């Protein structure tokens, strides 16, 4: 994604304490071109190719952040990061608290998520619900290039650990990207489309599919408000609640698994604070609760698509 | 190096045929990848055939192997039919994983293929676990983990080899040191780039073999398998080799290694070398090998056709096998 | 817990393929006496003390289960298990699926969870929401000794991987334990107390505190129905929905963190399927969103107690 | 073994005083644990004092250490005041972690104490990360990881030492081999129970020292610290030792090791041995040491009283510092 590459390069130019760790992020420029060209600009110490030691280099990043540098861990596929969950949940997320605020934890952990192109079950997980569950982490799931830039810049200027998870099917998305110093605050959802009849919250790739579905439904006279939370921790519930107070209906579309997911959290909060605003049950549409199958025929069956999203919206409007 | 008597002719021919089968399958798959028949990633085993074949020659059907992202060769050497391999990569119902898995999730437990893997490392631990089973069950079965040099720097290597050693489990750890993890040289990534020496850190024997010489691998594996089978515990075998195709199909190759180096290693092709040796030592005639080559080519072509004609998995079945179907049975009140 | 020790010992006597892995579970009998006396009965191969290699022995258990034995991993504190999350989520949970049902995965992963006695942030996590999120795992969180026995027996006779998480403050709880062959089906909640005015779902230690609060509220004339899900994957939503259809009010009390937690999942499902039954907003009362502090004065402030639970119930009844 | 000139008298006295301070603190804490003043776990460092003291003698305030569950000794040797230690274990606002942490979460980054830990392993990786910072920032600071023999079998050891080696980071890995992880003997748990030899697996020097001889530790650490500080890269130092109290206060001790073994090691007490040596070599008079002993006893007693009188943390603050308070500042539109 060109937008994030620019953002990273600009911040590295400004801040010599930023360095990047990962497999193939040096000369090669990253499996997803996340560091393309930076090796030539900033050299091998700041673009450091690692052994296949996910736990190790995430733990290393923790110690580095504790001692005055700002590591960026580029872990390619989020599935690989599972070996480092102990370092993330038990160390990185807790370090500021344990040290009663005397240590900061400016670590950026970035990589790809998402189902698509038969990448199968070891290269397609969506893990943001799990990270959003624990205190101490900021979790960013951008859907548009401009947002990705603004959020990455914020991440590189904040003292908290940030997980920055990009859907791999969105890496080549095109869209407007503000020039230069553009930072987007965490915890501010964007209203991607305004509407009157129903509120749909959608993330990452699902945002794009939902917008397509919404455009189609507009022709049927169904007016859909589409909200992209952009960060799931913190989660901007005010924007969602405001929309629900207008529409009275809420659907959450999420490729990630349903149980204890982001949709569950949003539904639970709305069922509490916006109970009186609701005119219909709260609905969720999620990726199917199964490891991702490989074959295109099976893969297509486990993710929401424009049609199933459209149907879910229509059904909800009829409730 | 070989501590074995000269191989019987039919064993030699079997090794040759298996290597050739792997090679043909991989070249077929590479073509199919270009044609869009393969939907996900495809890491070929070209150049490393001697290792899977030299090791598997000592394995029984009830022995088990655990493999990596680069696992087609291991699967075939353990006895997977090319049809099942190719159909799996084409995403078809007739694939060994019924289309659920693809290249990095090949399963055929009925012949001891316990899975290739999209994650570097776990195969080492799982083979150790199989070794634990075999010891607890008082069998003489053996478990093998195949893994690359990249896995050596991973914690799984450390924890797995240590546990196998302290409990004397019947496990073979086969490191295929092809000198790169994707494009990162092992020389750079490892503080001590000699894998075989790492055995000492865990109190188990570490042996080095020429991974492009099927007889060297065969011989080293023979000793290690016999030892493991008879209760002597695990061993680490480092096979030095080189992959002569890119890390995965569709990737570039000459940014991190010179074209000449690749060409030079192609001259050390394990199949060519073995062919030359068989002919040189007059064990077989060229005609014998040519027949095998033709048979293999036909076998693989037929497998490809079979795969291409095979049906897609039924989308309705996408969630089958998340849990055991016998589950209900065990739930009692 | 004597009940689970008995259950384990009985099953080990019947099934020679069961073996236990863990640190200090051999001669020592386990940090929490989970294997006390078993070493003498079943010997060192079946009660195998491990190095401090959590990832390693969980991965080993995966391979063992694939090849005909039935490993029990006794990992002491659930916090230590985070180093093995890759093996659990990416391997153990997916193995049956990846092998299209030709491999079974009879692995039991057991250990302690929960806040109490100043165990501080590395020995007090509640991780069941995270495990319940992913497909392929059964997640058991028992609250009573009899349930623990019945659920452990089921776990040791089922072909799926089971996480069995006991709150450490409940290990010495007393209560009736059925003799002999007693198995409790997964996914069956228990109605721990019947009531008319409000449904409270509570887990593990919180069940006991909720029952105390309910008893106190009965004297004020508030009739509380208390439900213990016992397993969070599968989750028995029918029992909860049935109760809500009677009471019209739902509170979920859970020591674990709120965001994307079990309470969120329950609330989301009720806000969908039981929308018309609800007379009031759905409420959650959770452990505070912070790493667990050590000092008793701080620790007490981060977990729900009888008083805060009582207040939450009363507030909800007034809605 | 010492490659150093004889120690100046004041250095010797400092080492003695520090060891004695640790010992007195630990014995005080053991008593307090019985009295219920300590709310969580308490792992004492009794018997291992020479290691923290011998290593820390070479560290500057801006060097950093990362420690374990058994970390009181490291904290004190790095300069933590006994008041802050004891108050933390009593759960008071005046503790080094403001009562948030307790025994296994001691933090004083202002003096380079980057945390003790309830999880075995991460300290190794974090010290490696500190080394990375120091290298990137072109400083001559040094990072130290203290860990037990139990951590050696953990993947963190493998990955951390390897990365420190390939990038030549200024890190000292200090393994305190007290021969048991809780009650599991290292001899049983490790395929190769010689830790120092493991350095070779990562291409870094591995040195063994008598962990009950403060001068031996001092000398070995001197070389390693100098080397790291001047860009020579990491080293692994194995200090053989023994803890003479149970794994944690309140736990039994003689089920896994004979009482006589413990008694025998008590005669090798690092403080007693050093005292004997200082007197034997006529470096100091007994009276000098007795004064230190008295001063230390007073210091610790006063710290205990301070701690016991200190206020509890305000429950209102329980959620402070989950996130950085400067967070808002960096969020711009
Ligand atoms: C835990 C993990 N990290 C990273 C990857 C991405 N990856 C796939 S293959 C590979 C290189 C593996 O190198 P090696 O083990 O030497 O095997 P080779 O490809 O050379 O056969 C990497 C880094 C992965 N699959 N799993
Ligand atoms: C990852 C992890 N696993 C298990 C434990 C439980 N535990 C605490 S201390 C300990 C033994 C540590 O032994 P060693 O490293 O030799 O240190 P020692 O106690 O001997 O100082 C264990 C197993 C833990 N804290 N962290
Ligand atoms: Mg390789
Ligand atoms: Mg020890």
Write a structural description.
The complex is a heterotetramer, with 2 copies of chain A (319 residues) and 2 copies of chain B (333 residues). In chain A, 39% of the residues lie in helices and 18% in strands. Chain A is of the alpha/beta class. Chain A folds into 2 domains: 169 residues, 3-Layer(aba) Sandwich (Rossmann fold), CATH 3.40.50.970; 129 residues, Rossmann fold, CATH 3.40.50. In chain A, the strands form 2 sheets. A 7-stranded mixed sheet of chain A has the order 2-1-3-4-6-5-10, with helices on both faces. Chain A has a 5-stranded mixed sheet with strand order 7-9-8-11-12, with helices on both faces. The longest helix of chain A is centred in the middle third of the chain and has 16 residues. By secondary structure, chain B is α/β, with parallel strands linked by helices. Chain B has a single domain, classed as Thiamin diphosphate (ThDP)-binding fold, Pyr/PP domains (Rossmann fold), CATH 3.40.50. Chain B has a 5-stranded parallel sheet, sandwiched between helices. In chain B, helix 2 packs parallel to helix 9 and helix 4 packs across helix 12. The C terminus of chain B is likely disordered. Chains in contact: A-B, A-C, A-D, B-C, B-D, C-D. Chains A and B meet through helix 3 and helix 11 of A and loops of B. The structure holds thiamine diphosphate (2 copies) and magnesium ion (MG) (2 copies). One thiamine diphosphate sits at the interface of chains B and A.
